[in-house]
Each structure stands twice: as structure tokens, then as C-alpha cells.
Amino acid sequence: MTAVKSIAVLTSGGDSQGMNAAVRAVVRSALFNGLEVYGVQKGYTGLINDDIRKMDLRSVGDILHRGGTILQTARCLEFKTEEGQKIAAENLQKRGIDGLVVIGGDGSYKGAQKLSKLGIKTMGLPGTIDNDIPFTDFTIGFDTAVSIVVDAINKLRDTMTSHQRASLVEVMGRSSGDIALYAGLASGAETILVPEIPFDLEKVAARMENNFAHGKRHSIIVLAEGVGKGEDFCKIISEHCGMEPRVTVLGHIQRGGTPTHNDRILASRLGDFAVSQLMAGDSGKACGIIKNELVATDIDTVVSTKKEFNHDLFELALRLSK
Ligand code: ADP
Ligand code: F6P
């Protein structure tokens, strides 16, 4: 006996690598369990416009390894209104769809919260490169985004070392410093600038100068976009040490490409978990992974909590990057 017979899945907000793997897991797990399953095109826009189609096993073939999302995604202002939410819920109900899996970031979770209050059984899956969702150690896409940044820094390091130069790499993350932190630690960056930790650019410049004077042949600064613009920081640093770091803004490159095996596995596990939670009668929850265990937390709690920054990792990166 299952609490839902028919469910839908959508992707919303900024896309992330592994969203396709999550859609595939939701669709195939639902079909395996004898449920009907629908795909909603372009997030909440598709719910309002009734752009909803039935999915079968083949609808999600050949997508596990692809970036982006076959369901497409959107930022939908109309859905923020009560009227928009009502239309969206009615479009699901008229098809007899009683459960919905929303794959997206915290904004998308707020949308799921609203639908849940209108009687749709909802489950959120953390789909964002930013890793800014609490009650999950990692979000789907974060691992791939970090790999892309690390790969870019490896390349920059080659040319910086040849010229004994400094390089500043601006990375995404909205108001979260996690991409900068993990990529900075993994690539031996000398300086990691994140919104969660105060810093003094004069000291950053002095440290850089001192390291060069003591034989260091390159200097990598990773800047999280939530702190400010790379160009502005480079100007300030050059005023303090007469050396202007070269700037690289990685931008949307960080959101594309084939997902890493970690993201594919995380997405597959979470997608399957969301379906079992809905079948068991759970609703209004966000699924996550904590210490390798799958967990479901009240969406209300998730959207009202700020994810904790990993200060230990930050300190480690500082200690190791001499
Ligand atoms: P993300 O999910 O990546 O954080 P957004 O913040 O852009 O991305 O949110 C995605 C979509 O979720 C928005 O375009 C909107 O349709 C919906 N949404 C965001 N906030 C709310 C809200 N407070 N109430 C209802 N829907 C919301
Ligand atoms: O939330 C994901 C993210 O890529 C952020 O890191 C970034 O600030 C934002 O989306 C960029 O949004 P857009 O794709 O609308 O430019």
C-alpha cells in the first residue's frame, strides 16, 4: 500500500550537474514501484502553464552523464503569488498527481513549501552547485563545480609559475563560500576569500609579497563571488604591493559539463529516497545526506536555517598553503 499513486518531478532555479541523474532516479524508482510519473517542463513555469508530460523508462534514457536538465529550469515570478501557486496545484490535481519532487535550491524549496500547504505531497532534493542548503553535507552539482574550478586552477598555476605571477580566480556560490573553500583547499590556494570570514586585503597583499620574496613562484587567490568583484580586489591588492594579480572569472562554466561520479551517485540515491519517502506518506520534507546517511528534514526548518560554514577546513587550507 503506497500513500501516492502518481507523482511529478521538476527542476527549478539555477541548474546543476546531476539534476538529470536525479530526474532519472525519480522516474525509474517510481516506475519500478508501480507509480505513474510525470515530468514538468521549466520548473514552476511549467506547472502554471500545464506543461506536464507522462514519463516512461525511455524518457530518461542516456541522460545520467549529461549536465543541464532535460526538464529545463526557470525562475518564475508568477509562482511567488498565491494565484500562481493555486493554478499550479490545480494542474497537478486535475491529473490525479498527488506527489511532487522539486529539485532545486532554497528558493525552489520555498515553492515546494507553498504547494505542500495546498495539499500536494512534496519532497525537495538539493540541486545547486552552491552547497548552501542546510541539513545535507553536499548538494547535487557541488562536487562537479569544485572539480571544474580545481581543473582551471591547475592550468592557471602552470602559466603563473612560469611568470612568477599571482592569479585571482572568482568563483560562484551566491552568498556561500563553499565552492571557494573546497576548490581552494584542493588546489593549494594561498588565499581563500569567502563571505563567511572577515579579511584584510592589506595583509593578503603583504603575505603574497613575502611569499614571493621567499621563493614562491606563484600565488593563487580564490575569491567567492559573494565577497565582491575580482577586478576590484585586484586593483586594491596592487595598490598595496605593486603587483597586480591576473583575474579569471569562471562564471557559468562551473555549472556545465558531465557530472562527477560523486554527483551521479548522490543524485541517484536522493532521487530514489524521495520516491520512497512519498510512498511512505511523508511530505513537506527536504532530502539530504549527512555522514553518508540519507535523511529527510522538514522544509520549514531547512528554509529557515543557514548552513554552517566549515571553519576547520578553512583553517586547514590556511595552515597548508605556505
Ligand atoms: P534556487 O532554487 O536555485 O534558490 P531561486 O531562488 O531563483 O533559485 O528560486 C527558484 C524559483 O522558486 C523562483 O523562480 C520561484 O518560482 C520559486 N520561489 C522562490 N522563492 C519563493 C517563495 N518565497 N515562494 C514561492 N515560490 C518561490
Ligand atoms: O545558484 C547557482 C548560481 O550559479 C550561483 O552560484 C550564481 O550566483 C547564480 O546561480 C547565477 O545565476 P544566473 O544563472 O541567473 O546568472
TrEMBL record:
One of its GO terms (cellular component) is 6-phosphofructokinase complex. Its main location: cytoplasm. Allosterically activated by ADP and other diphosphonucleosides, and allosterically inhibited by phosphoenolpyruvate. Coiled coil: none annotated. It is an enzyme of class 2 (transferase). InterPro entries: ATP_PFK, ATP_PFK_prok-type, PFKA_ATP_prok, Phosphofructokinase_CS, Phosphofructokinase_dom, PKF_sf. ADP binds at residues 24-28, 157, 188-190, 216-218. One of its GO terms (biological process) is fructose 1,6-bisphosphate metabolic process. GO terms for molecular function: 6-phosphofructokinase activity; AMP binding; ATP binding; fructose-6-phosphate binding; identical protein binding; metal ion binding; monosaccharide binding. Homotetramer. Catalyzes the phosphorylation of D-fructose 6-phosphate to fructose 1,6-bisphosphate by ATP, the first committing step of glycolysis. This is ATP-dependent 6-phosphofructokinase. It comes from Chengkuizengella marina. The gene is pfkA.
